[in-house]
Design a protein that fits this description.
With about 210 residues, the protein is mainly alpha-helical. It has one domain. α1 packs antiparallel against α5 and α3 crosses α5.
């Protein structure tokens, strides 16, 4: 075989080695990028699961103290209402960070979390608004001693109707509170953390009496 043929075969071997090396490098880069993406998605999921578990626990700890506070003095006194308003503010933190829910890759769990927040946030806001309305109606009734009897009767009926709506709303909130522990347990597994059960379970220590 002539020397030119040997050189040609040698050049082909070199080219094949270069092409194979480039393919292996590309494949390695794609695999590395894939694993890096998986690791980053897992990290985001853990962070999101931990965040939502903390928010849920925070809201419901405040709710537990509010429920317990209702056993002392006026069940809708200023201290109790301050607690419901604080829980309502915590629920708004979820609204501001709701897009992070998509980092939780478990679709059924995402749906449960969102439903739970809605079924706590709406009653919380309604409790606050109903209580303000009732207080305004009562103040109007007390502030006008000479009010015509028919108008006073209508105000009293409105107050009783609003109080009934508030009690029904409170019952919805109490029922939904019972779902927190199971959701937090699932979030803790996603976050790969050990959940402090005292944060998800109803509180047993009562706060100071309401005023």
């Amino acid at each position: 075989m002539r020397s030119e043929n040997f050189e040609f075969v040698s050049n082909l071997d070199t080219l094949a080695a270069v092409v194979l090396g480039a393919l292996l490098a590309t494949a390695g880069g794609l695999v590395a990028e894939h694993y890096e993406d998986q690791i980053e998605r897992k990290r985001r999921e853990r962070d999101a699961a931990r965040f939502f578990a903390e928010i849920l626990s925070s809201i419901d700890q405040i709710l537990d103290f509010a429920f317990e506070s209702q056993k002392y003095g006026d069940p809708w006194g200023s201290v109790t209402m301050s607690m419901f308003e604080a829980a309502n503010r915590e629920a708004k933190v979820y609204e501001r960070n709701r897009e992070r829910l998509f980092d939780v890759r478990d679709t059924p769990l995402r749906a449960r979390i969102h439903r739970h927040f809605l079924w706590e946030a709406f009653p919380l806001e309604a409790l606050v608004e109903l209580s303000k309305e009732i207080r305004g109606l009562e103040d109007a009734l007390k502030g006008e001693p000479d009010m015509p009897a028919s108008r006073a009767e209508r105000l009293r009926a409105r107050i009783e109707e609003r109080k009934g709506a508030r009690e029904r709303t409170l019952a919805v909130l109490r029922d939904e509170r019972q779902n927190t522990a199971a959701i937090c347990a699932d979030l803790a597994r996603r976050a790969e953390i050990r959940l402090d059960k005292s944060k998800a379970a109803p509180a047993s220590r009562p706060p100071a009496p309401t005023s």
